[in-house]
Design a protein that fits this description.
CATH class of the largest domain: Alpha Beta
Low-confidence stretches: 32-36, 38-45
Number of strands: 21
Number of domains: 3
Distance between the termini: 120 Å
CATH architecture of the largest domain: Alpha-Beta Barrel
Shape: globular
Radius of gyration: 32 Å
Number of helices: 14
Structural class: alpha/beta
Largest sheet: 8 strands, mixed
Strand content: 15-25%
CATH superfamily of the largest domain: Glycoside hydrolase/deacetylase
């Protein structure tokens, strides 16, 4: 009996012990799960890295690794208290705004959201540093929202500065910036059609709050524009400091203290002078000279010289395969107010190609023109004028520009005959087709420009011609 009692006690003890072990394991498991969830809801500052370009700058990373309410944020620290506090306050505010947006929209927890903030130090000298933040936020809907934010600090004073701090008081810098910005941005067909372009380039300080001061240029940045096909890319405009020589404060000019700590790659396209008023009178005769198949060295240069001397403009439909050899000529075309158009990569008949081949011909050409100049053409002239619906679908909305006068200069190769043929057919609103790869064509163009000016023609680009036609149409009184 006693033995049986002892056995029962041992069994009971084992059961109690097993139960206690199970409870202990269960408690540990619950604490682990709670700990994991708690860590997932708290932003964590991970390992500190140094900036890829500037080793003395540390890069901080904040991560919340969740599909709902998650974020990934990078920002720099310079070990300068006032500056570091400003940058940290900015990223914390953006995280808080993001979390508030999720709460206000009552986004279900099973729905993904996103906040990504990256940065780039665009300039770092003894005088100034500029940090450009790129942000992408998605809190429901069809589109996420991209945005930018720049911080430019005057390092001797450790002070955040705006554009008004670098120009002399009472100078008319805002009007100059407004003219430059509107002129440059409207070169993009998408932006030119934007209803907000004029408003976003008005001479107001808030329109030019995003900027960077480089060694010898000032770069303006513009928030992505929302259009019918989504957001545009961030637009930037680089302006030579010499344009503002008389109104830019000495401490921000191209001096030793403004030299970047590392070698600074100059912007691709730099505005070197204030835009001149177009001076095009829609009530007077206009005509568009256009040149295909270039650029080339001597013929194109000769034509550009003649256009500049006569204060005239033309449109050059260039081949992508040739652009890479003459980037400086493309840049000059644009700097002097001419227009650059797309003429395919190597001049095939587009209607005979597959869709993939057409896209290669068109978009590789767009890409290389942008690479060498920062400009993207808004007009295309298909080789041989061959165009159909399948080709049009590959053009991304670019305007197709053909011609109304063709002297066949490529075949004649005779200056006088080319001049005679063109002048016998000129009329208001016409488009002349020539080629800037033949010496005879260039020589003929010089004479044609001279004769057209003598006949009081305004020589305009294709875009300018379209604008004149639009103005004339709007001037016609509506019936009824």
């Amino acid at each position: 009996m006693k033995m049986k009692m002892n056995q029962l006690k041992r069994i009971k003890f084992k059961r109690v012990f097993t139960l206690l072990v199970c409870i202990f394991v269960l408690v540990l498991s619950i604490r682990y799960v709670i700990s994991e969830r708690a860590q997932a809801t708290v932003k964590k500052e991970t390992e500190i890295f140094t900036d890829a370009k500037y080793p003395t700058v540390e890069m901080q990373t904040l991560i919340k690794d969740q599909t709902h309410g998650g974020y990934s944020v990078n920002y720099p620290t310079l070990q300068i208290k006032e500056i570091d506090q400003t940058l940290k306050a900015y990223v914390n505010e953006e995280i808080a705004n993001y979390q508030q947006a999720i709460a206000q929209k009552k986004i279900p927890k099973e729905t993904s959201t996103e906040l990504t903030i990256t940065y780039d130090i665009t300039h770092y000298s003894e005088q100034t540093i500029t940090i450009l933040f790129n942000e992408y936020q998605f809190t429901g809907g069809k589109l996420g929202e991209p945005s930018i934010q720049t911080f430019t600090f005057d390092l001797p004073s450790q002070r955040l500065i705006s554009l008004q701090d670098i120009f002399y008081e009472n100078s008319d810098y805002l009007n100059s910036l407004s003219m430059i910005a509107f002129t440059e941005l409207k070169k993009s067909k998408k932006l030119a059609e934007s209803e907000t372009l004029k408003a976003k380039t008005e001479p107001k300080l808030e329109n030019f709050s995003q900027f960077s001061i480089l060694g010898d240029t000032i770069v303006l940045y513009f928030q992505p524009f929302l259009g019918s096909n989504g957001y545009s890319k961030t637009q930037s405009i680089a302006i030579k400091k010499a344009v503002f020589d008389s109104i830019l404060k000495d401490s921000y000019k191209n001096t030793k203290t403004n030299k970047n700590k590392i070698e600074e790659a100059p912007p691709i396209h730099i505005v070197t002078e204030l835009p001149k008023p177009s001076g095009i009178d829609p009530t007077k005769k206009v005509i568009a000279l256009t040149f295909d198949d270039g650029p080339s060295k001597e013929p194109t240069t000769l034509i550009l010289d003649a256009l500049k001397d006569s204060d005239s403009h033309a449109t050059f439909f260039v081949l992508g395969s040739r652009v890479q050899y003459y980037p400086e000529i493309i840049q000059r075309m644009l700097e002097e107010g001419n227009e650059v158009g797309n003429h395919s990569w190597d001049h095939p008949q587009l209607t005979r190609l597959t869709e993939e081949q057409v896209k290669h011909q068109v978009w590789d050409t767009q890409a290389i023109i942008k690479k060498v100049s920062g400009y993207e053409p808004v007009h295309i002239r298909p080789p041989y004028g061959a165009i159909d619906d399948s080709v049009r679908q590959c053009l991304g909305g670019m305007g197709v520009s053909l011609w109304s006068i063709d002297p066949e200069d490529w075949k004649l190769r005779n200056k006088d005959q080319i001049v005679q043929l063109v002048l016998s057919k000129v009329a208001d609103g016409k488009i002349i087709l020539m080629h800037d790869i033949y010496a005879t064509s260039a020589e003929a163009a010089v004479e044609i420009i001279k004769q057209l000016k003598a006949q009081d023609y305004q020589l305009v680009t294709i875009s300018e011609l379209e604008e004149v036609k639009k103005q004339r149409q709007e001037a016609i009184p509506s019936k009824g």
